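[audit] Reproducing an earlier prediction to check determinism. Same input, same settings, fresh worker. If the tokens differ from the archived copy the diff job will pick it up downstream; this log only records the rerun itself.
[audit] input (200 residues):
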Amino acid sequence: MIHEDLWKRLAAADPADVCTRCIIQHDASRGAYILDMLGQTYAVVAARKVIEKGVAGPTVVTDIHFYVSTAQYLLSAKDTPRSGEWVTEKQLAYGDFFFATPHPLPTAKIVKRFGTDVEAFVKAGAKLGGKRLSFGDAAYELKVFPRLPLAYVLWRADEEFPARVQILFDSTAEQHMAVDALWSAMHIVSTELLAAGEGA
């Protein structure tokens, strides 16, 4: 799923340092880093090179985006508090270049699903433990990682304008991971929002 060197670096890392930087827990008996992400618990087990979802009868995660963003977060996150200042992808270093084609923000399916159903978006955000924000027609702060909140802002479709979704980042985001891992983190959130919106 990710380069062998990343697993080796993670296995060799000091758990106390990783937990402090990333605001997570370490289960020494399992050799696992425990993260709470979007209302679910995940275990990263470097020795087995897997990420597991759930506590009782955990299942192995297969989504490459989880592996890319989680590994980089655990290895690169800084012990830096969030600024509380929201910025767009264009304000991140290399964001203008990277998030153009072929790395567009993963918002198209979110727009299609929630563009005319703001109430379903509100319910989906709540299911993921999001914090309501006063942007657009509806917005949520969603913590994909403890030091990495993302804001999803929805403007509903009307007679004049099509629906639109904007993703915002705390201005410290690029201190914790590079833009490719941020892109993967956004894919995680978008996928989970869509799943939470099923039947909403």
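[audit] rerun output stored. Observation attached for the diff report: Residues 179-196 form the longest helix (18 residues).
[audit] end
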